Structure formats: structure tokens, C-alpha cells
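Reply to dn_fold:

You asked what the input looked like. This is it:
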Amino acid sequence: MNKIGILGGTFDPPHNGHLLIANEVLSALKLDKIWFIPNQDPPHKKKSCSITNEDRMEMLKRALNGNPVFDIQTIELERTGPSYTIDTIRMIREQYKDHQFYFIIGADMIEYLPKWKQIDELIALVQFVGVKRPSYSCLTEYPILYVDVPAFEVSSSMIRERLKDGKSVKYLMPDAVIEFIKERHLYGK
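and this is what came back:
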């Protein structure tokens, strides 16, 4: 049985924090692969209007290039409407019956779990993996595996702000992603 970690997000843009989390969870839980699943329409936050799905996909491809255990699944980009995790997990489990799935979330999402659509069914379908972050509580009634990840305080919103202000993002994201952002004049200056 293949053990697959799932890391969903807007990846607007993808950064080294995403890669660090994926690698640490892969190693700690001895998973076979990590699937990165870009959201179409995340119900809990507003997606940046200026960046197309095609640009997000290209940045993610460049970020993952050369790592054979990191893959992209476009299941959420292929359907319309909000990207609810329950819908995605149902579809994936139907398609990949011989896989065991681990859904990776940050501590900010652990606090938000009671508000997730059909959370009780979702908990029965997938094993949640929590990644701890400073200033967030990991207390929850839900069964979550925890993985310690070295602190690396970076976020897509912080990177977008730095790019808008003309500041450096070197070492916050892969060079190939930085080059693509420059080529396409994404996120401002």
C-alpha cells in the first residue's frame, strides 16, 4: 500500500517553507510520496486575483523540479467551485483505493478544523498530520499525528508583500521560481 502525503494550498507563490514541511513529513512518517494539490477556490481565504492557475502551476513545477517523490495533482484545478477537502479526499480515495493518505496541515488550520465542511466524515477518510507553528495552539479533539518541523517563518503573503515592495526573496523560495516571477513580472516590482 502506497503511503501518500497531501499538501494543499494556493501556492501563490510556492516557497521553501512548503518544501521543508513536505520533506520533513515525508521523512518522519516514511511516506512514499508527497502530492501537492493547488486549490482552485479555497473556502477559507481569498486567492490573489492577478496570478493565473497556469502561473501557479508553472511556479509549483519549477519548485518541485528534480525531486522524484514530490508530485503535483491537479484535481482541485480541474473542477469548479470551492475546493473543499472532503470532496477532494472522496475523489482521491475512489481513484486510488490501494493508497493510504495523510493530509498535512499547519497549526493555523488545526485551530480551524471544527469549521471544515463535513469534518467528522473527513477524519474517518484521511489521517491528518499537524505541523506545529509558533503562536498557534495544537489542542484539538481530532486525532492528529504531529510532526516537528524546524522553524522557518515564511509565508506566501509575506513573499508577495516583499516582492511588491521590491525586497529580496532569495533563500525564501527556489531560484527557479524567483526567475519565473521575474520573467512574468508577477507580484509587483
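The two ends are 47 Å apart (CA to CA).
Hope that clears it up.
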